[in-house]
Amino acid sequence: MKVNKNYVNLQESYLFAAIGKKVREYAAANPDKTVIRMGIGDVTRPLAPAVISAMQKAVAEMGVAETFRGYSDDYGYDFLRGTISDYYNKKGAEISAAEVFVSDGAKCDVANILDIFASGSTVLVPNPVYPVYVDTNIMAGNKIIYAPGNEENNFLPMPDENVQADIIYICSPNNPTGAVYSAEQLKKWVDYAIDQNAVILCDSAYEAFVRGDLPTSIFQIEGAKKCAIEFGSLSKTAGFTGTRCAYTIVPAELERDGMNLNKMWSRRQSTKYNWLPYIIQRGAEAAFLPEGFAQGKANIDYYMKNAETISTALSELGIWFSGGKNAPYVWLKCPGGLKSWEFFDILLEKANVVGTPGAGFGSQGEGFFRLSAFASNENTILAMERVKPVIESLR
To answer: Which of 111, 202, 367, 381 has its CA 20 to 30 A from that of 91?
Structure first.
């Protein structure tokens, strides 16, 4: 018996597990300190009333023989797939219900989508970026190359025609940097992927935070259905981090190497996935309908108020940062030339505030730091009151 030795190439622990361990150790040693957590991107606002009402109704239906539901329809119930399709169509991205696949998490889908691609593929990943993209491709034995983000390109790397890739990851709004591609920039990526005969895996988990005319789906870009798969999530859009619901869009016309990727993903999911509970899917449907959507938007506005609080404080200090305007993350340059884990320790010990070291998102993240806007308004204000004198002392 042989094991997958690609796991040897992984870092010893997942980024957020390492942060959690440090915070637990500090809290145990300092029980009198109140730590404000602005590291992990977990929401804090309750589910929308319309979502709760829909799920309660669905629970009642499960207690009556006439309305009881067993196994879900393949790929998600038609009512939810249709609602998500309508959501896309309203913003000018023509997506049919047959192209929507409901699941329990975008993180899972981003990892599992690799099942339909050949092992040994060359994968282009932005740096810095969400660690799951890198770790899952290491597990799959793929060759990873990087598109470097930095201050000069505002952490929005663009395609290099001299670089050949089979799979391309795009995250917009980006996690961790909060940077968002314009339509013109996404068009260049689409054209590049078509020219390379590559497939873009576009993570749009934070699309609901985008303001103004910036694109919220790659399928708003001409030609994207020929080269892209998109992952959406209700975790941040509707506060479903503890409830779980996501979806993957695989265009019906997307083909490579004589194979239809929509049919391949259908086959993969019908074999390896058991679908989301009916109760959750009814709640998800309500999150996209007018009443639930408006209530969810109010929560997003609440978080973006926190992002504004963080951004204002950093601007007053003269600290370079990205994000905070179209994403719930603020990506700041560590003061005094500190490394990101050094800054993490100083903030934890002197301000009792937890953020996320940029180095955990890739080599290009060294020297940068992520703050999340998912705390309460009161804690965000308090956190920045604590952080400002610490930063001032480091300059």
So the answer is: 111
Residues near 99 by beta carbon (within 8 Å), at least 6 away in sequence: 85, 249, 250, 251, 252, 262
- Cα 270 to Cα 179: distance, rounded to the nearest angstrom: 35
3-state secondary structure of 163: coil
What pLDDT, in 10s, does the model give residues 179-227? 999 999 999 999 999 999 999 999 999 999 999 999 999 999 999 999 9
Q: What is the pLDDT of residue 395?
A: 79
Are the CB atoms for 383 and 350 separated by under 8 Å? no
How confident is the model over 289-306, as a mean pLDDT?
Answer: 98
Residue 337: partners with Cβ closer than 8 Å, 6 or more residues away:
367
Over the stretch 115-158, which tens digit does the pLDDT of each residue have?
999 999 999 999 998 999 999 999 999 999 999 999 999 999 99
- Indicate the helix (H) or strand (E) that contains 84: helix 78-90
**Number of residues assigned to the chain:** 395
The structure's pTM equals: 0.95
Residue 42's φ and ψ, nearest 5 degrees, are: -95, 135
Burial of 331 (0-12, 13-18, 19+ CB in 10 A): buried
Decide: 305 and 377 in contact? Cβ < 8 Å.
Answer: yes
Task: Name the strand (E) or helix (H) holding 281.
Answer: helix 278-288
Burial class (CB in 10 A: 0-12, 13-18, 19+), 298: exposed
Q: Which of 374, 381, 334 is nearest to 357 (CA)?
A: 334
Q: What is the pLDDT of residues 245-254, one digit of tens each?
A: 999 999 999 9
* Tokens 């798969």, located at residue: 229
